[in-house]
Amino acid sequence: MKNFKTQVLSITTAIALAIFFVLPQSLKAQANYKASPGKDVSIKVLGSSNIHEWNMTATGIESQGQFKFEGGQLQALTSFGLVAEAKSLKSESTSMDGRCYKTIKADQYPKITFKLSSATVTAVQKNKYTIKASGELTISGSTQPVVLTVTAVVNPDNTITCTGAQKIKLTDYKIDPPTFLLGAMKVYNDLTIQYNITYKAI
């Protein structure tokens, strides 16, 4: 009887140890990551006109995603969202900023958002991946499907840096390319959104 109790105790102890060591790893296999405004977040909008090229940088950004790892390798991005405050877009000219806010109706639609629908992850090399992220981009109250091609790098401190660029057209979001100075300056329809964002586990 004593040997039976000892065996039961040993089995119970083994199960408890297995749960103790394995469960935390499984919990970490799929973790939430977050990026907040600061030096690790950069989103730029690049455009041009018949007079000069221009760019604006967004500072009011919040983003969160759920990254899944298996065997130390990034396997999937299961959820993801990004919100940028429209009036956090800044250029070198306050007058240009005001014209931009008016063009994109920032008072009426204060947020620019991206919401993930699905994603595929492909390993490129050690700790470097390409993510094809399909989702919906909303600007000035208009939503369009987009596919982002993201380069994701898992850093030594386990943060994840995501970089890439996406071309869009203003008219796709029901925004008429603006003109200024009685039509002397015309903003072109094509824009490029560049992003470099580092995510930390939370």
SSE layout and pairing:
Blueprint lengths: L1 H28 E6 L5 E8 L4 E6 L2 E10 L2 E13 L3 E2 L3 H10 L7 E15 L2 E12 L2 E13 L5 E10 L9 E2 L4 E2 L3 E12 L1
Antiparallel strand pairs: 1-4, 1-13, 2-3, 2-13, 3-6, 4-5, 5-7, 7-8, 8-9, 9-10, 10-13, 11-12
Task: Explain the overall architecture.
Helix content is 19%, strand content 55%. The relative contact order is 0.17. The protein has one domain (30-201): Lipid/polyisoprenoid-binding, YceI-like (Lipocalin, Beta Barrel), CATH 2.40.128. A hairpin with a 4-residue loop joins strand 2 (41-48) and strand 3 (53-58). The strands form two sheets. An eight-stranded antiparallel beta barrel has the order 1-4-5-7-8-9-10-13. The protein has a two-stranded antiparallel sheet with strand order 11-12. It is of the alpha+beta class.
Descriptors:
alpha+beta; 13 strands; elongated; 19% helix; eight-stranded antiparallel barrel; Lipocalin; two-stranded antiparallel ribbon; 202 residues; 2 helices
Helix amount: 10-25%
- The mean pLDDT is 87
Low-confidence stretches: 16-28
Termini gap: 49 Å
* Main β-sheet description: 8 strands, antiparallel, barrel
- Put simply, the count of helices is 2
User: Would you tell me the structural class of the helices and strands?
Assistant: alpha+beta
Number of strands: 13
CATH superfamily: Lipid/polyisoprenoid-binding, YceI-like
- Silhouette: elongated
Architecture per CATH nomenclature, i.e. the level-2 architecture: Beta Barrel
- Record the strand order, biggest sheet: 1-4-5-7-8-9-10-13
**What is the CA-atom radius of gyration, in angstroms?**
23 Å
**Total count of domains:** 1
Strand content: over 45%
Instruction: Return the CATH class.
Output: Mainly Beta
**Oligomeric state as shown:** single chain
Please trace the helix and strand order, writing H or E for each element.
HEEEEEEHEEEEEEE
| CATH fold name | Lipocalin
